[in-house]
Design goal:
This protein is of the alpha+beta class. The chain has four helices and eleven strands, in the order βββββαβαααβββββ. A six-stranded mixed beta sheet has the order 2-5-4-6-7-11, covered by helices on one side.
Length: 184
Amino acid sequence: MTRRAALDRFLQIGEFYFGSGHVRVQTVLGTCVAITLWHPERRLGGICHYLLPSRGEAQSSANAGPGVYADEVIVLFEKSVIGARTQASQYVVKLIGGGHMFPEQLQRAECRAQACSDARRADCASIGCRNISAGRRLLAERGFAIASEHVGGHGSRRVSFDVWSGDVRVRRGVAMREPLRKAR
């Protein structure tokens, strides 16, 4: 049997992908967040790479596309799900990213001393924390249940999403590989 090569695609900040087939989508995250959706029966899915929770968070946002903001990219997901004649509840959803890229610059003592909570993230000075909070809230509001996540912490993540199987791999920095954790 001949093994078919995957079509590789790299997602930049603010980009969005939704489709099917033998496609592998990769991206690199810092404070940004990626959401993956995968429909196990139809073997189709999507991934986004958003920069900020909402357009209002940006200083100059007029030229930015909708994939840059969590509240706008969730609309792209909704349209794609409806266009595929599926429902939000049928998807396996994963949330990744929102890392602290410069942990020595964290200003709030509670951020340095203990783990973040969603209550703290909403008004946190860290954009990574606000991105995580926005992703969780927006997904829940639209009926998507997060199956697993790999969020917060320090440093970057490389994400690889195989659309044909729903597999998501996360690699921290250059050498560290961690599994996704079950959502709370």
